[in-house]
Amino acid sequence: MKALKSLSILAMAALMCSCSSTGKKPEHKRIAPLPAGIEVNNLKDCTVPAAFTPDSFNWMGGNLTLTVYSQDLYDAVEIEQMQVGDTIIYEGEAKVISNINKGNSGIDINGGLDEGGCCLAPNEGGTYVARNWDDHATYTELGKAEVALAEDFVIIDCGEFPTDPNDTIRTDQKLYIEKQKDTHPDFFSLNTRVTIENGMITEINRKWIP
User: Does residue 9 surpass a pLDDT of 50?
Assistant: First the structure.
């Protein structure tokens, strides 16, 4: 009898454990862009996506106030392991993943851009990059910074049209920037990269984009 009673108790315990494990809700993950690795208040040696206008230059003080951004990159392992029910932070918004479609050119989440979802593409260094329309990457604003201009800083600038050749401005940078106010004033994260060396801006590079 004791043996039967012990077997009965063990069977009940096993049944309870089985019910508990099958009824357990899956644990969902939160997938966010990788840290930028940039300290906005301590920009020393880096190249950053940036936004500013011709009025952002302080020529008397020899500096430029710019808004600094980071490109949204995701860890490839996290992306490849993501599941329905996980949450992804995309363009600063938390999106619960309802469907995942993996193709040759990347991954569409929640129907992709056409349906208000997300698009991710393989990138170098074991990462995925978030994509928006026209294959542009998405960016996160990190904050504003006031950075000194090197005396010999260079401007490499596109024209207003895709077939225009790039201009390289090594002298009279102030005059060149002032002329942009009425013709081509937009410097922003999609088209502008600012190179900083030893805490000073050495190059502003603006590319033509669609």
Answer: no
